[in-house]
Specification:
Largest sheet of chain B: 2 strands, parallel
Oligomer: heterodimer
Radius of gyration of chain A: 20 Å
Shape of chain A: globular
Order of helices and strands of chain A: HEHEHHEEEEHEHHHHEEEEEHHHEEHEEH
Number of strands of chain A: 16
Distance between the termini of chain A: 15 Å
Radius of gyration of chain B: 19 Å
Structural class of chain A: alpha+beta
Number of helices of chain A: 14
Largest sheet of chain A: 5 strands, mixed
Strand content of chain A: 15-25%
Chain lengths: 412, 63
């Protein structure tokens, strides 16, 4: 198969994929390989010794949530002892924003790519500011985590069963036309989700429970993001493993390294040091407090959302920095490194042009244009949380390494 | 036209590559169209050779 044919096949699979949010389950019951003391994290694999502050903070919180440790000091000792089984969530069909920590007793979203029979899993979105995924673990964080796990998740599960699932990509398609880029701007998609959920929550829940759940999902602002991320992963995983394809199937960062995966080279990671983020900081924080780029949420960019769809979401620049002109320029640049335009995700202000789809490592290396990422910024110190949001780009070295490996494999 | 006469005429320039060259002319009132161009792979010969070996074939369209 030629590279062009292989890339067309990858795009066909991506376009045919869907993402139905069908369930919430305990990670230990549904995530493959989720055994006792397993700790899944965002990005390519990284051990405790190289983990950044906020990811360590989230591990500490997760250890206390699981009951493996009762204090942060005990959790640190446990992690340093080698008892915990760290691995990339991507190796377990799972995904999570920022630190992305998933442990066995956590509830996860189950999102199904029905066309290809692929289930993927993600953490529940906790909100912004002082939250576990950004490395915070004080009692307010732990209490919220327990409430989400023990009260919110069972209610959502019942509502989803009553609804027969919710089509996440259908909401994404609507929201992109309403000014969301689906990574850092979900002003349309989150309310659309609430509209879909509300009647089913009311049907299955107690009044006070339902009010609390709806308020939480609304206040969280980006609650839909984690289902979108799982959906993107399921769709892109279906396009992985096409031997001659140069299309990127994952972009993920762990705060230490940024990694990409390419369809033709399967599950192999190509990594480079995680870059810093240029952004807008919450009051009291600045660039010196910022951790390098972290999280699995760049799976949205991999599917042509996030920064790639930024032209259609000019208001996102108020959160991540830049100007509306910059937003359009960013999307136009992304067309230079992609092989297709989405048939379903359309940007009205570009005459309903489809979002850039299918990042081609050849185009990235040739042009030197790398995918831009809209992202949150964690404090580099464990225990603090989110301190801003901004923009960064995937290091070119990831693509150069991938191109070397792809060419080598093809020459054999 | 002799090349030495060019600057005296209504000079219009297309500048390819380094934008500072275009700016120098703009500073002197010359109309310049800037073409954003850079060598493939930023001039990295190893990468450029790999890219050349992985180009799409022209007959792919038939597929």
């Amino acid at each position: 198969m030629s590279i062009k044919q292989a890339n067309q096949e990858a795009i066909r699979r991506i376009e045919e994929g869907n993402a139905m949010w069908i369930d919430l389950r305990l990670a230990c019951d549904v995530v493959p390989g989720m055994e006792d003391h397993t700790v899944l994290h965002a990005g390519p694999p990284v051990g405790w010794e190289n983990m950044c502050g906020p990811m360590r903070g989230a591990v500490i919180g997760a250890c206390m949530f699981e009951g493996w440790a009762s204090t942060p000091e005990e959790a640190i000792a446990l992690a340093a002892s080698g008892t915990l089984r760290f691995d990339s969530s991507h190796h377990h069909r799972a995904i999570g924003p920022m630190s992305g920590i998933i442990t066995p007793s956590m509830q996860v979203n189950v999102v199904r790519n029905e066309r290809f029979g692929l289930d993927t899993f993600s953490t529940l979105y906790m909100g912004t500011g002082k939250v576990l995924r950004h490395g915070a673990y004080d009692e307010t964080v732990m209490a919220k985590l327990r409430w989400m796990n023990h009260e919110l998740a069972p209610l959502l599960k019942a509502a989803l069963q009553h609804a027969g699932g919710i089509d996440i990509m259908a909401l994404v398609a609507q929201a992109v036309q309403m000014g969301d880029e689906m990574h850092n701007r979900n002003k349309a998609s989150n309310p659309l989700l609430i509209t879909q959920l509300a009647p089913h929550l009311v049907a299955v829940g107690e009044r006070a429970q339902v009010i609390e759940a709806l308020k939480f999902i609304d206040n969280a602002g980006h609650f839909i993001l984690n289902m979108v991320m799982a959906g993107c992963k399921g769709i892109l995983d279906a396009a992985s493993g096409i031997a001659d394809s140069t299309i990127v199937t994952a972009i993920a960062r762990n705060g230490y390294e940024t990694g990409i995966r390419v369809s033709g080279t399967g599950d192999r990671w190509f990594t480079a040091p995680a870059p810093q983020i240029k952004g807008v900081f919450f009051p009291g924080y600045g660039p010196d407090d910022a951790n390098p780029d972290m999280g699995d949420s760049a799976i949205t960019e991999t599917l042509g959302l996030g920064s790639l769809a930024m032209a259609g979401a000019p208001a996102v620049v108020q959160y991540v920095g830049g100007t509306p002109e910059f937003a359009i320029e960013t999307t136009m640049n992304m067309f230079e490194i992609t092989v297709a335009e989405s048939k379903t995700l359309k940007m009205p202000n570009l005459n309903f042009r489809g979002t850039p789809l299918g990042i081609d490592i050849r185009k990235v290396v040739k042009t030197g244009i790398t995918p831009v990422i809209n992202t949150g910024i964690s404090c580099k110190r464990a225990g603090v949380g989110q301190i801003g949001a901004g923009l960064t780009a995937v290091p070119i070295a990831c693509f150069e390494k991938a191109l070397e490996a792809f060419a080598t494999a093809r020459a054999v | 036209m002799k090349i030495v006469d060019l600057p005296a005429d209504d000079l219009q320039v297309v500048n390819i590559g380094l934008e500072s060259f275009a700016q120098d002319l703009r500073d002197q009132g010359v109309v310049v169209v800037q073409l954003d161009w850079r060598p493939p792979a930023g001039g990295n010969a190893r990468m450029a050779a790999l890219l050349a070996s992985l180009e799409d074939d022209d007959d792919d369209e038939a597929s």
